[in-house]
Amino acid sequence: MSEEDAFELEPIEILELPLDIWHRDKGARMVEFAGYHMPIQYDGIMAEHIWTRENAGLFDVSHMGQLMLTGDGAAEALEALVPGDISALKEGKMRYSLLLSEDGGVLDDMMITAVPMGLYVVVNGAVKWDDMGYLREYLPDEITINNMEDRALLALQGPKAVDALKRVVPGVDALYFMEAGSFFWGPKTDPEPLWISRSGYTGEDGFEISVPASRAKALADQLCAQPEVKPIGLGARDSLRLEAGLPLYGHDMNPDVEPVEANAAFAISKRRRAEGGFAGSERILNALANGPSRKLVGLSVEGKMPVREGAPIFVGEAQVGVITSGGFGPSIGAPIAMGYVDAAHNAVDTPLEAEVRGKRVSITVANLPFIPHHYHRKGAST
Amino acid sequence: MTRYFTEDHEWIDVDGDTATVGITHYAQSQLGDIVFAEVPAAGATLKKGGDAAVVESVKAASDVYAPVSGTVIEGNDALEGDPALVNSDPESEGWFFKLTLSDSSELDSLMDAAAYQAFVDGL
Asked: Which helix (H) or strand (E) holds A353?
């Protein structure tokens, strides 16, 4: 056996979600994503996208990692690896944060919620195993990392999500954006506690629901029985998040970029800016103070031809950036994109060009989000 | 007029030495919502199997290959304003381009409707 043979990788098995059969029964077209068979669409991306913006869409995001960090000082310990003020997080409150490498590169983006047991952390499916390895290596031994593989994660998103969900799970309408809590679902004789947050990845109001995998089908069926709700695939999830200006990890963010250039400076809490002391803080705080050399920006596209990931961005003959996400925005009716553009050319309204199949397309730096967010914020009038 | 099909899910209507090319119902259903189509300009020379047109769904861009060699007579301008014609009427109004065949013997290797249906059923 040659050395090469010895290191040849076995084909990786593609895993099934708890709702695999359910998706197929609903007519989903399945694709491989993040190591799982996942539904890319049911009725069609355009119709599913518009349905979610006007009604409520049910997304199966069970490929994402649901981690529970427990042990004394978990919040303080995690702060060494993320730039958010986690120790100040009150029970039932959540925060968007970033897992940082030693040099401040973004290893993942994540939602961190303070719960009675410790910290509930939702990470991206494609990198969840790497995240767990990194956390295990860098967190003290007293902190336990529990990967809750026995739980599914469903997202119900859209302006009517609250109407549908409160019928199924009374009381959820009391939550505001970025709040979470435990709610009972099912018959009084056999209630199931669900962990529900008011959050999502579409720019709309909505919820994310952690449910035991064994009960996921019953919950999905009950939610889809509500007149406001249809199942929505990954395709519309991507077009919805792009219109909402939300980055997709592995595309708009990766280990080579730090949070400020990734347009995520908001995730660096005030106290952490003053104190530093997180992985890569020197590089990141320097980018905050002096401005990053390039930045992730929104880009509107002239005409109808989509400009997609990997397309170079030019000013004249000089390349000044690259597209990291691009496609068609169904609610906008035009192509939209996001990409990294050098500091000298990334002010809003700057005219640029992208190159697609050897041809130049006019693009313009745009404000994000493309479609306003409709979150149910505390203190807001809506 | 005779209609041929390719394993790349294109149809070709042949009338004398003139051919009209589009993608099949099966192809459009696999692509999903079409948001953009780029067709070749009149006068362009196409080689069998080479890139001829581009069709883009919300998700992705796909190449349409020339099923036969020839010179483009006309691209379907209607697709510029209404690319969704490829979804709603792929095998008629949603055609991509017309060309003059340069080698009609290339048609011999293509499928007829029955053979194409059997090919799709086997996918």
From this structure: strand A351-356
Residues of B in contact with A306 (CB under 8 A): 35-36, 56, 61
Q: pLDDT by residue (tens digit) across A273-288?
A: 999 999 999 999 999 9
Instruction: For residues A346 and A147, give the distance between their C-alpha atoms in angstroms, rounded to a whole number.
Output: 40
Helices A216-224 + A161-168 axis angle, to 10:
120
Residue of B nearest to A238 (CA): B59
B87, B9 Cβ separation under 8 angstroms: no
Strand A229-231 relative to strand A56-60: parallel, antiparallel, unpaired?
Answer: parallel
Asked whether residue B115 is assigned to any structural domain, the reply reads no
State how far the Cα of A312 lies from the Cα of A322, in Å rounded to an integer.
4
Residue A359, pLDDT score: 95
Average pLDDT over residues B16-24: 96
- Model confidence at A3, in pLDDT bands (50, 70, 90)? very low
Cβ contact B57–A40 (<8 Å): no
Q: Does residue A210 contact residue A219 with C-beta atoms inside 8 Å?
A: no
Q: Is the pLDDT of residue A201 over 80?
A: yes
3-state secondary structure of A3: helix
Within 13 A of A157's CA, how many CA atoms are on the CB side? 30
**Token representation of residue B74:** 């006309």
pLDDT of A221 reads: 98
In a domain, B61, yes or no: yes
CA dihedral A326, A295, A246, A249 (to 10 degrees): 80
ipTM surpassing 0.90, yes or no? no
Residue B111 in any domain: the answer is no
Average pLDDT value for residue range B53-68: 94
In a mutagenesis test of the B interface, which of A42, A234, A241, A305 is the best target, namely the one with the most B β-carbons within 10 Å? Answer: A305
Taking the CA of residue B115 and the nearest CA in chain A, the distance in Å comes to 25
State pLDDT tens for residues A110-164. 999 999 999 999 999 999 999 999 999 999 999 999 999 999 999 999 999 999 9
Specify if B39 maps to a domain.
yes
Number of domains forming the structure of chain B = 1
Residue B59: predicted pLDDT: 85
Q: pTM to 2 decimals?
A: 0.94
Residues in A touching B58 (Cβ below 8 Å)? 45-46, 49, 235, 239, 327-328, 330
Q: Residue B68's pLDDT band (boundaries 50, 70, 90)?
A: very high
pLDDT for the residue numbered A9: 61
Domains of chain A: 11-60+150-243 (3.30.1360.120), 293-382 (2.40.30.110)
